[in-house]
Amino acid sequence: MADFKEEDKPVTVEEFTQYLGKVVEHNSVPQYADERIAQLDEYVKNGGKFEDFYQKQQDTLSFENLDLENEDNQKTVIRELLKHNGYSDEQINNKISRYEDADMLYDESEDALERLKVIRENEIEENRKQQEEYAKQQEEQNRQFFQSVQSDINNLSTIRGISIPKEDRAALYEYIFKVDQDGVSQYQRDFNKNLSKNLIESAYFTMKGDSLVSGAKRDGETSAAEKLRKILRNTSKNHSTYNTQ
Prior knowledge:
two-stranded antiparallel ribbon
């Protein structure tokens, strides 16, 4: 990865992602021997599954290599098209029988095959567009999330009644989002050091919320009051002893 100036270093996940994207775009333009490989690459990068794309391509390839001189293949493509168009099995069988009687099976199969090729290509393209749109939505949701967290931290004054110094706000944001060369933040590293313990503590504090802090505060106040009473009692005893003397 190329070096960059200190002031240009990405500090958030979003900035780091944008930086990587610019580096890839600037330094490498992939060359593919087959356009379908380029389509697969884009499809998977946008969140699609390789298996889904592969299946669609296999369907298309099977149509490309289909021998229509074979009568079974003729019936297969006609059946496939009619099923796609919503015909029942009974309706499909009746149509195929009529095509056979009229000696139109081959002609109808040629037409059906061309339509199926277009249908598969359109399905692949539509699937690609859906994955691309999904990726854009995910990117926008991530952007909004980072902005929301940053705004909340900037406006933060207390957490569960505990005062948060201003200098801790920037440190907190960096702690959560600033990533190292492995793309991992310090918060993630610290949390994962003792995942089970930290998960339980986090869940418990979330479950109990303000009541946990209030209880701890009351316990602290009770302890402080008890200490004060002991001091007063000791002072009173010492004072009484002094007076009797």
